Each structure stands twice: as C-alpha cells, then as structure tokens.
Amino acid sequence: MRAPIGDFDHATPAPDCLDELTRPVADAVREWRGGVPAEQILYVDTDPRWADTAVFVEHYGRDLLERSANCVVVAGKRGGESTLAACVVLSTARVDVNGVVRRQLGARKASFAPMDTATGETGMEYGGITPVGLPGDWPVLVDSAVVDLPYVLVGSGRRRGKLLVPGKAFAELPGAVVLDGLGVPV
C-alpha cells in the first residue's frame, strides 16, 4: 500500500503488523474503537539512524516536516501530587508547558517528565513515544492543528518505525482533549 504522506516504500495497516509495535500500542490498535477505522492507522518502517528530524525529512520526504507530530510526556505537580499527561503538537512547534499545559492540568508547576519515567510508565522507547496506547487514565492533550491534518506522522512506540494516523483520530484517543494554542510555533 502507498503511504498517504512521505516517501516510504510501503505502508501497512497497523492491525496487520501488530508484531512491529510495542505491547501497549499493539493492544490499543487491537482494541481501537471510533469513527476512524483502525485499518486507516498505518505503520511504516523507518531506519533509526535517520531519526533526527532534518535527516529524516531529507530521506523520507520534505512534506513530512509540517505533517509530523511529537508526543511528549509531562508531569504536572500540585500539593505534592504529580499527574502525568501526554502532549501532541506539530514538530514545527513546541509545547506550551508553563501556560496551556499547566492550566489544563490544574498544576502549580509543569515540566517534561524524566526519560526513565516516560519510558517506564508508557512501555515505549524514548524517541518513539506515541499517543496511541498510553495509559487510559492519562490526559492526552492534542493541539488542534494536529487534528486538522488529513494524516500525521507520529512515533510507533519504538525508535524504528512510525505511524501515519488520520488527524481526526487523535481526538478519539482515550483521555483526548483538543486545545488551541498547545503548540507554539518555533
């Protein structure tokens, strides 16, 4: 199957390649419910050597720069309690951690979660964390610009491989909250 974005040799519907995904991501694809069929979530194999954004878009297609999203794990703290959440913004933006995220989580302080916390709590590899398959009780904050795109490239749970996800599917993820201004252009 041809990928709807990027210059990939092959795109496979995620339900047909569950062995390529980490357990939480595979489980989420297997249990997917919503208006966007799971078969529209596609997996593309990528080489981890080309993970750096500049090298990645040079190799897999310049159109991906504005059609890629990053998923970062943040921790909001208030009164000794910590809340983990995921933020999904276009790769051309940065997450407004101290403004939008902090207010949305009702936290006094918000920051990026340490790498070992992010990987340990998600069961995913650093550099490949995706909003598909996160713990069900986490808020998943999604910038509205991500939802507006026909397809978005995000991590697959591993450093090798990516998911191509219809933008509107991000709004259907468990715990999803679509927000304007979550991503601030860099």
Written account of the structure:
- It is a single chain.
- The protein has 186 residues and is of the alpha+beta class.
- The chain has 5 helices and 11 strands, in the order βαβαβββαβαβαββββ.
- The strands form 3 sheets. A 5-stranded mixed beta sheet has the order 6-3-4-7-10.
- The mean pLDDT is 95.
Secondary structure tally: strands: 11
Strand order of the largest sheet: 6-3-4-7-10
User: Helix count, per DSSP?
Assistant: 5
Arithmetic mean of pLDDT: 95
Roughly what percent helix? 10-25%
Derived structural class: alpha+beta
Strand content: 25-35%
Report on the biggest sheet.
Answer: 5 strands, mixed
Nearest-angstrom radius of gyration?
15 Å
Q: Ranges with pLDDT <50 over ≥5 residues?
A: none
Output the helix-strand order.
EHEHEEEHEHEHEEEE
N-to-C span: 34 Å
Shape: globular
Keywords:
five-stranded mixed sheet
Describe the protein's topology.
Elements: E1 12-13, H1 23-30, E2 42-44, H2 53-60, E3 69-78, E4 81-90, E5 93-95, H3 97-105, E6 109-112, H4 115-122, E7 140-143, H5 144-147, E8 151-155, E9 162-166, E10 176-179, E11 183-185
Parallel strand pairs: 4-7, 7-10
Antiparallel strand pairs: 1-2, 2-9, 3-4, 3-6, 5-11, 8-9
